[in-house]
Amino acid sequence: MKYLRATAVCSALLVGFPLLAAAESPIKIGLLEDQTGILAQGGLPKVHGAELAVAEINAAGGVLGRPLELVVYDAQSDNQRYQEFARRLTQSDKVDVLMGGLTSASRVAVQPIAERTKTLYFYNNEYEGGTCDSNMAITGVVPEQYLALIPWMLKNVGKKVYIIAADYNFGQILGLWVRKLVKENGGTLVGEEYIPLSVSQFGQTISNIQAAKPDFVFTAMVGSNQVAYFQQASAAGLKIPMASPINGTLLYEHKQLPRPVMANMYLGVNYMEELKTDENKGFVERWRAKYPNEPYINQPGEDSYVGVKLYAEAVRAAGSAERTAVIKAIETKDICTESPEGKICFDKSTHHVSHRIHIVKVEADHSVTTVQDLGIVQPSWLGTMGCDLTKKAESKQFTPEEPKH
Amino acid sequence: MTQVELIALAYQFGLAVAFLILSAAGLAVIFGMMGIVNMAHGELIMIGAYGTSIANRHGLPLVLAALCGVLASTATGVLLERTVIRRFYDRPSESLVMTWAIGLFISQAALIVFGPSLPSISSPLGSVAFGGFSLSIYGLLLIAFGLAVPVAIYLLLSTTTFGLHARATMQNVEVARAIGINSGSVYSATFALGAGLAGLAGALYAPTMSAVPNMGGSFIVQAFVTVVTGGGNLVYGTLPAAAGLGLVQTALTAVFGNLVGVLGLLAAVIVSAKLFPNGLAHRLSGKRFS
């Protein structure tokens, strides 16, 4: 063993000093995702996305001559595990950056630990928006990006809207956004329901929708219980068009549910495996080569991949993996990455990211067609609320105001 | 309220009651006859749904596939009873922890073997429209099963030799043994029956829900509140408890929405547990069992 190590060191010295340095000081990324429990279906591809990004970056020589190293823990769909493992990653594993979290509740669980331990936290997921935090980078899409869907629906499908959403911060805040957009764009809200995550029988909701006769139903159903809504609505003969930012992208309902349950679902998305862009074609091929048994490359999977790539770019621009240097780079330099969506960039003042948004439609055979490519959409809303992290370091949460009727 | 709305509401009520009864039936049989609180009940339901879903995907028609689901959960029940449960008959609190552990084991094993979810099967039979509303016909079938299951179990216990032996064992196990009843095999058969009923719930709801490893969780609250309210007898306990709880839930959901419906259900259970601490079955039949 000793002999072996000596040989290794000698040969490393022979090959050259940089390689030795690379072998000894990787940049450590602490990743927390749900690999088991009720969120596993959404969370597993996020681990794969991060692994793929790390493998690609390391194959191309790493970052600043150093390889990336993932330290992964299974958060088990449990916010207490998130906190426990966030402490372990920051205190004993001493990672350079924390990443992960699927639900907003998990993000809120990790946020204070990252803050206290002075560890940068990348939340790589679509969410309800509003987090203005110097210690965070939020790389997923936000409502002003994916809800470009609502004005489009009001213009092209109909004016009467019914909202059904999961009853926690994500669903409630999305509901606020939709109410605001419906009002601003001359639509009418004919009903709204916020449904606890434990509910799995939707008979009453379905007959409420039938009584209200909307032109389309906005759905933000979360978790395997609530996915049952689509099956039950279809079995009850409900054929009203639907619009959603998530029902298709996260748990890929159109792949899991029998045809034509998800027919007539319109989605506002930054990513779906089916998007037929050149950038995505290569990405899907590389992913499927590494994970041939992946049931579906979901949007959080792509978010996780992009999050790691953006972090690598930020470290490169900073010239260091040290937290304050990386934050300063995000706030002062143009940090962009090539992604399956195309070239996307950090917004300096809010630590959010621009995304390319498509409006897509799920057909009766559950294939996905692109209805409109909206191009790159900026994360603009936090700026209008007065969030500017380049001027003032802070940690604040904004929610949209209740629209006045 | 118009006639059409009344029919729609009655249908919702039927669905709610059927869900409570079918969720609770297996749990009630095992608790009522053996005194064992089976914490793996939700996982047996999941096995029923998985069996149905997998068999259906391999080309079996839904009815036969559902039968496979029930067989799978019954077989699991027999296996568990033979290896573990029978060692805990006289230790109810240990059996609670034991079955909980088994439940965790089963759902994690399902995640490892089958992945995070199975493709769902479609609801058969289509829908029927009336006056601006439309209902799933499969829902009507679920309501029919909800009523048929307690009646069938009642007939099984009151008219067959197995029923006679089972009731004798419940009333006094020593005397039953003394007159030659094999109490061991009665217990085995009862546990298998309870597991089979859990599997039936999973099989029946498989076409309306997503098949995921933790899907038992969406039945387990309803199952426990119904058994807590009703006690261990299907006809005198589960049926009236489900009717009462279903009424509270449907009325509150219709007027105030799903959140209040769920809260109301739980509040009704607390009130009922205070008024009838031994369960409705005890009040309605004067006895805990049969």
Characterization of the model:
The complex is a heterodimer of chains A (405) and B (290). Chain A has 15 helices and 16 strands. Chain A has 405 residues and is an alpha/beta fold. Chain B has a single domain (3-122, 135-285), classed as ABC transporter involved in vitamin B12 uptake, BtuC (Orthogonal Bundle). Helix content of chain B is 75%, strand content 3%. The longest helix of chain B has 32 residues, at 3-34. Chain A binds chain B through residues 36-38, 40-41, 44, 167, 193-196, 198-201, 203-205, 207, 210-211, 213, 224-225, 227-228, 231-232, 234-238, 251, 255-259, 261, 295, and chain B through 5, 8, 11-12, 15-16, 19, 108, 111, 115-117, 119-123, 126-129, 132-136, 138-139, 207-210, 212, 214-215, 217-218, 221, 250, 253-254, 257-259, 261-262.
Any key phrases for this structure?
heterodimer, A: 405 residues, Rossmann fold, 2 domains, seven-stranded mixed sheet, five-stranded parallel sheet, 42% helix, B: 290 residues, mainly alpha, ABC transporter involved in vitamin B12 uptake, BtuC, two-stranded antiparallel ribbon, 12 helices, 2 strands, 75% helix, 3% strand
Give a quick rundown of the structure:
The complex is a heterodimer of chains A (405) and B (290). Chain A has 2 domains: 244 residues, Rossmann fold, CATH 3.40.50; 97 residues, Rossmann fold (3-Layer(aba) Sandwich), CATH 3.40.50.2300.
Distance between the termini of chain B: 41 Å
Give the CATH level 1 class of chain B: Mainly Alpha
**Number of folding domains of chain A?**
2
Largest interface: A-B, 41 and 46 residues
> What CATH architecture of chain B do you see?
Orthogonal Bundle
CATH superfamily of the largest domain in chain A, called what? Response regulator
State the helical fraction of chain A. 40-55%
Strand residue percentage of chain B:
under 5%
Architecture per CATH nomenclature, i.e. the level-2 architecture of the largest domain in chain A: 3-Layer(aba) Sandwich
The largest β sheet of chain A comes out as: 7 strands, mixed
What's the total number of strands of chain A? Answer: 16
Count the beta strands of chain B.
Answer: 2
Strand order of the largest sheet of chain B: 1-2
The proportion of strand residues of chain A reads 15-25%
Mean pLDDT of chain B comes to 86
Domain module count of chain B: 1
Helix content of chain B: over 70%
Mean pLDDT of chain A: 90
How far is the N terminus from the C terminus of chain A? Answer: 76 Å
Rg of chain A, alpha carbons: 22 Å
How would you sum up the global shape of chain B?
A: globular
